[in-house]
Amino acid sequence: MTIFKFALKRSFSNTTNIIFLTLFPIACIFLPNGEEWPFLPYGYQYFGLLILFVGIRLATIILEDREKGVVKRLAVAPISHFQYLSQNLLAYSIILILQCIIVVYGGVLLGKELYQPGWLFILYGSFSFASLAIALAWISIYRNKDASFLVYMSLIFIIVVLGGLLIPIEIFPDLLKRVAVIFPTYWLAEGLKWIVFSEEILDFLLINGVLWLYTIVFVIVGSIRKIN
Amino acid sequence: MKKLMEPLLFVNSWRFLMMGAFIHLWVLGDSQISSFILILLLLLMTCLRWRFALPVWFVLVDILICFFYFPYTDIAYYGFALPIFELALKGKCLFSLFLCAGVFFAQASSSFLFWFFFQAFFFGVFSFIFLKNQEMYRVDIDEQRKVRYELERIKIDLLEANQSVSHQAELMERYRIARELHDHLGHDLTGATLALQAYQYVQEPEEAKKILQEVKNRLERSTKSLRETVHNMTPMTRIGVESLESVVRNFQQKDIEFKKSGNMLLVPVHIWSLLESCVKETLTNVAKHSNATKVEVDLQVTESIVRLSIKDNGTAKKLSHTGSGLRSLQMRSRSMGGSLSISHENGFLVVCVIPLDKEMLNR
Amino acid sequence: MRVLSTVKFTALRMLRSYIVLLLLLVVPIILLTVFSFILSGAVPESGVPYINETSMTQVLVFQLFGGSIVMSLIYNDLFTENKIRMYALPFNQTMYAFSIMMCGALFSTLLGALLMVYSQFVLGVMWQNWLWMIYIISLMAVLSIIVCLIFTFSVKNFKIAERLSEVYGIGFVVLAGLFFPMPENGFFDFLGSYGNPLTLSMGAIRDMGESNIGDAWFQANILLGAIIILFVVMLILGRRKIG
User: Fold this and answer.
1) Is residue B310 within 8 Å of B284, Cβ to Cβ?
2) Distance CA A193, CA C226 (A)
């Protein structure tokens, strides 16, 4: 578990990362409530956006490894690509899960109206994994860290808007409403809606299931080993 | 050679294009959440196929997924395009056709579906044949390459054997000369030396005269046998630089100037044979292809290298590639650790440089 | 004026920075298109379609990030990679820095103008006063460049300066209340109105559209004043660093 340990250490080594990983989630708790929309406080609606950002920030560490040739050295080390990838991903998901715990249970402690914090936490967890998987698939295309981050940032804004996380999906025209389903952010928004109105438990399972399917698909795509 | 795109890339592109088609159908069609999960599941299978080489029976999973969705959505029918394609891609065309017909008649409404399946089947068969052919060509090329490498190996072995044989022959010859000298000259000369030593101690003039006569006889005999030995051993054929000179002399189409410098005896036999064929080949080339009037052949031998340069004053630049004769010479010179370079600027110029191996000489 | 001969190349470098073009031109175009789809036909009581307001906001928001390219060019040319070469050249380095700034401001304004052209001719947004809009856009561009340069000069680590410039952009968008309403107290009210370049410029354009010329000029002049003050700050900081 050496790689796991160092992946954790590296994630916290840089100032920007510490801000991203600790201050922003805490700031999320303190954002105000919306009037009509969103149903949860703003911080909880936008936390999905933050999860996407944190996902790419963490995943670029793997890209950095590739850039600096660490992957090449690992290829000759007595360690398999699977071990390298799984331990890194494990470390990142633990960080993401910790953030979710801070945000959800911090909100509970402060007395925010979160309806069902347990389910909310599970939803954020599923979405964190999906976000990490998407980021992993994304960086497998790139060689340069900054370029991948900047382009991903613009992509995030577009899918967040189209997925109905930033703007309520009800005001979309019909076609865009259908297209929105393609984006993982749509499922997060749906999940948040479920938390507030809590209909059938089956719907919630379906939402999580879709997020997990996205996770598996993108992990398969992103697990490709690129040495250069 | 510029590398074209791999055919497998197109196979994968087709798979993902199908996903695009399904999503299109879904957006235009029922847009139910449950059928979107069908698309996600098919996408999962496609990703797995893209990353790993799955066995044929894995299409059963696709078929099962689509089968369970039959009652719920039309996309499930279209989804069968994937297993049809995969089966055809793996060469199971009959199964593929069977599946095609089965699903089509089970649904039996949309003629569009027929064309959809048909293109999947067609592209699957096409990719199968294409990939198969590529595989065959690859095996073929590999075999040819192997044979070519073996041939080259044998060539180099032969050249080395040639070199070692000439060395052996030289050693045998040295041994023969030594034996000849020992047998025919040695005894007489030793006898003469002994007789001369005896002559110093002899007092009687009669005896001394006899001994002197004996010495004279022996020396005469040994001189004669030396001459005979040398005569017997001098080869009738021309070797070394003489053979080169004779080649040049016998070549009468062009005006040839032959220059040489250095100690020709330093050059071993196998190098002479290379130099000779080099001169012959080049002169033939000049006679065949060049409009030159004058050829300069320059042979320099130093302590460590032999350098042969052949230069004409021709202007023709027709031969851009190296002919097989010169190529084989190039290879032979390389196998001796030397090099043969050809230039077409300012007339045709061939320079052959072979290092002289001192250890070989002293062995 | 040897510096003038470098202007062409500075302009070329800017036009060839694909990531900047992607972030400041392609992304806003996509977002504008998406918004125009979403808001198509939505007209409130005032009679002006929502999309007009949204595209104006978008154009101005992306001006907040216009300083990043000037920042990276100046950092590369005068502090790190090309520093020695630039100082070996027979021209005034300060003037060169100014020329990069001017180019960057023009470039940023041009991108803004392109967005306006796109939204007018493709999405059918009506801009009331082109000249005023471009004036405000250029003010925003200059302000953003000056702020970015102040970060570059005052922070040792360039990475942190880059992050700060992002904070400047996103921070003022958040303070303007575009993501969610800010709490109501004196501090946030000030930063959501006269203390925020984004709301100032939006207000100036809105007032010009409603023919409140006095108010419009007042808000634009606040921006201009901020530019002048920050320019002096930048000069003082820059002299220490470059001179």
Assistant:
1) no
2) 44
Sign, Cα dihedral of A150, A156, A162, A165: negative
Q: How many residues does chain C have?
A: 243
Tell me, yes or no, if the pTM score tops 0.90.
no
B partners (3+ CB pairs within 8 A) are A
Per-range mean pLDDT, top range of A139-148, A218-227, B12-21, C233-242 = B12-21
For residue B362, name the pLDDT band (cuts at 50, 70, 90). very low
With contact defined as beta carbons under 8 Å apart, do C140 and C113 qualify? no
Residue of A nearest to B42 (CA): A217
**B132 torsion bin: left (phi>0), alpha (psi -120 to 50), beta (else):** alpha
Percent of chain B with pLDDT over 70: 94
Q: How many C-beta neighbours within 10 Å does residue C17 have?
A: 17
Reading the block at residue B303, the tokens are: 């302590």
Task: Kindly tell me if the per-residue pLDDT of A20 is higher than 80.
Answer: no
In this complex, the residue of A42, A151, A172 whose CB is nearest that of residue C38 is: A172
Query: Phi then psi for B358, rounded to 5 degrees?
Result: -65, -35
Question: Looking at residue B109, what is its pLDDT?
Answer: 64
Contact between chains at A173 and C38 (C-beta distance less than 8 A): yes
The full set of domains in chain B, from first to last, is 7-134 (no CATH), 158-233 (1.10.287), 241-362 (3.30.565.10)
Quote the CA–CA distance of B99 and B133 in Å, as a whole number: 25
What pLDDT is attached to residue B154? 93
The angle formed by the CA atoms of residues A99, A100 and A106, to the nearest 5 degrees, is 90
Residue B305 parent element (H or E): strand B305-312
The whole-number pLDDT of residue C41 equals 67
Q: Are C165 and C147 in contact (CB under 8 A)?
A: yes
B271/A13 Cα distance (integer angstroms): 69
Chain A, 4-43: which have a CB under 8 Å from a chain B CB?
none
Output the CA–CA distances (angstroms, integers) from residue C146 to A206, B66, C64, C105, in the order listed. 51, 60, 11, 10
3-state DSSP call for residue C162?
Answer: helix
Provide the β-strand partners of residue B354: B306
In B71-203, alpha helices (H): 75-79, 81-89, 93-107, 111-180, 187-201
For residue B143, what pLDDT is reported?
A: 96
The residue in chain A having the minimum alpha-carbon distance to the alpha carbon of residue C28 is A154
Nearest-angstrom CA–CA distance, A149 and A172: 28
SS3 A80: coil
pLDDT at B224: 86
The answer to whether the Cβ–Cβ distance between C179 and A42 falls below 8 Å is yes
Judging by DSSP bridges, how do beta strands B339-343 and B294-301 pair with one another?
Answer: unpaired
Residues of C in contact with A42 (CB under 8 A): 179-180
